[in-house]
């Protein structure tokens, strides 16, 4: 059973974390499908056609209550998270953001479904215990039990579950892998980070060196296209088959970085090097590259000269530095009726072209 979304204004969605890579994507998709769409963020700094910006501090219940008083959404998609120094702080802060948003919406009684975005740390453990302890065999399945580590993903889920029980709405949880996407003003995006890295390599005449582990270079893996993720979030919010279930979300194909890396290098017209005995992280190697990027921006008329707003070296180092195999099973989602997929190389190069068209990279 699906819910029609063809009549403009019939349905209303709230996207929490609307300035992020997924928030921008799913907000745009809701609006394009005729939903009355609201985007909640602290800064309200990104304008998306058809999305009404709402500004509030997710950690300030009074601010949220005032900002959301008249929104009355049918569907809430939660994509926001805040990075903290310890997992205890991650749990305290990120569970509070979910709890505060849902509490601010309780009085209206409008919410029918809440879709929560998490990720593979559900299976791999939090930053402090990443990849340690007992882990599921790959590919990861949604039926795997929680690990015996405190994890802010689990805390966020529990806030959704508790509110759903009190208020009678349905929920879905979406466990994404590394995301390839197009978004402005958001650096936590491997597609953009690698594009910026390749552009710097070309300017400086340096090889495009794989920064990660031997395992990530050689093992099979997968990634998640942001547009595909948005499609699944909306599907789960409009189909009874997805109610009260967690779902993995990845492109549906698998690859090895040793296969994709030369393709990226060829696309940018640069030489490449693979894993050569040790990891060579981007965060240390790209330190001090701000001036080089500023010159590239000036030479090519780019809209952003601040390297820190484009590339997240630590985030990409974390994804490519894993020493275990990471890929997910998509059977559950397919059996429930979500059959969409992406080709990973096509996904990556689509995002590169969109960043070029937006004059973010040359």
TrEMBL record:
Give the InterPro entries listed for this entry: NAD(P)-bd_dom_sf (IPR036291), PRISE-like_Rossmann-fold (IPR055222)
Coiled-coil region: none
Chain ranges of the PRISE-like Rossmann-fold domain = 79-362
In terms of Pfam families, this protein maps to:
PRISE
Q: Which CDD domains is this protein grouped with?
A: 5beta-POR_like_SDR_a
- Recorded protein name is Nucleoside-diphosphate-sugar epimerase
Q: What is the lineage of its organism?
A: Bacteria, Bacillati, Actinomycetota, Actinomycetes, Micrococcales
């Amino acid at each position: 059973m699906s819910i029609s979304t063809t009549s403009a204004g019939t349905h209303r969605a709230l996207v929490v974390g609307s300035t992020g890579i997924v928030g921008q994507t799913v907000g745009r998709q809701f609006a394009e499908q005729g939903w009355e769409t609201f985007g909640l963020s602290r800064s309200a700094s990104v304008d998306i056609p058809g999305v009404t910006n709402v500004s509030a501090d997710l950690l300030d219940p009074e601010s949220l209550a005032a900002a959301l008083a008249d929104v009355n959404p049918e569907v809430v998609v939660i994509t926001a998270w805040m990075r903290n120094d310890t997992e205890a702080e991650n749990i305290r802060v990120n569970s509070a953001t979910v709890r505060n948003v849902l509490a601010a919406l309780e009085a209206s009684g409008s919410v029918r479904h809440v879709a929560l975005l998490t990720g593979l740390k559900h299976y791999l453990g939090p930053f402090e215990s990443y990849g340690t302890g007992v882990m599921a065999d790959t590919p990861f399945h949604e039926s795997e039990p929680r690990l015996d580590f405190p994890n802010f993903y689990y805390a966020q889920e529990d806030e959704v579950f508790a509110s759903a029980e009190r208020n009678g709405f349905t929920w879905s949880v979406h466990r994404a892998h590394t995301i390839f996407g197009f978004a402005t003003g958001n650096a936590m995006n491997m597609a953009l980070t690698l594009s910026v890295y390749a552009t710097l390599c070309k300017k400086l005449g340096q090889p495009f060196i794989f920064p990660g582990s031997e395992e990530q270079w050689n093992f099979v893996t997968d990634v998640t296209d942001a547009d595909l993720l948005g499609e699944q979030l909306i599907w789960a919010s409009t189909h009874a088959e997805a109610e009260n279930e967690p779902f993995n979300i990845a492109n549906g194909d698998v690859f090895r970085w040793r296969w994709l890396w030369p393709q990226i290098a060829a696309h940018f017209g640069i030489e490449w090097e693979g894993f050569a005995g040790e990891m060579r992280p981007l965060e240390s190697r790209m330190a001090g590259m701000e001036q080089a990027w500023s010159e590239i921006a000036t030479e090519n008329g780019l809209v952003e000269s601040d390297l820190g707003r484009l590339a997240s070296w630590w985030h990409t180092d974390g994804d490519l530095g894993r020493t275990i195999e990471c890929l997910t099973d998509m059977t559950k989602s397919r059996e429930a009726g979500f059959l969409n997929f992406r080709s990973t190389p096509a996904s990556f190069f689509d995002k590169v072209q969109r960043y070029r068209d937006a004059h973010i990279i040359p």
